[in-house]
């Protein structure tokens, strides 16, 4: 009996325990999923917030990048504008060496992200360029005022004139000497034979006086001592030239070259060769000089028939010789390219014309005195008695 009571007591305990455990499981089944669900929701919210913050940070970084990129592109654009302006003014004869020297400094500042310094430097360079341009304009105006004469308003048929010549490429202030082709022409050189380095030279006025002449103009291209690229060939010239006084050729082998034109003088006139390699001889020749390019032939502009150098396309002092009927025209102009010079020769009405040296070699003598120059000491020249 006692045994049965004990068994019943244990059964009651286990039943109570089972009921309690069941109640707990029911509670857990209801409570914990709700908690877990709430936790999952919080985690999802935190994850979304993280994504939002990440996106916002990325957007801010992109905005900073865009701002930095804009500053960079603005600086590069300003640099390119100054560089282009300097190049443009250079073609107009403005000395922009000081500006070109500072361009690498600005590049370093931009690459180093020193944008404020670069901007300040570029602003100053722009102001300096404008000052240089105004100074050039003032100098040109002073030159025009010096030479322009009230009696010189049209292209002369004889004598000297400094006047404005209008062409399809613009208007150019030009020194012009007109003389009759019957006057004795002399092509002269400082050397008596072919020369390749340290060649003799002399001023244009010396060529004029030494030949008992009164008019002269500088001759061919040559390698001046102030060009670093001319080391080992200083004052040499490779253009063919027939020396009137010596009665012989200089650089005769160069006659076979292409891209060279030549004017030859005889006792009765002049003959033009658009290409020197077409020359086979000329009876009664007194002198000849070749250079490039030819400018006019048979009243036609032929400058683009030649391979021009980049230097010939820039603006600067230019010189040339042309023939119109029985009149010789010696021409020196400024702030002009070689194609511009061809336009001037066309405006004068020359039948044929040849480009001569220019730049610092430009020289023109009339009535025994310089109208342009003296410029560099020259290896050769053309003079007229």
UniProtKB/TrEMBL annotation:
InterPro entries: NAGPA
Keywords assigned: Coiled coil
Coiled-coil stretches: 36-63
Superkingdom, natural source: Bacteria
Every Phosphodiester glycosidase domain range: 212-384
Name of the protein this chain belongs to: Phosphodiester glycosidase domain-containing protein
Organism encoding this protein: Candidatus Woykebacteria bacterium GWA1_44_8
Lineage of the species this protein comes from: Bacteria, Candidatus Woykeibacteriota
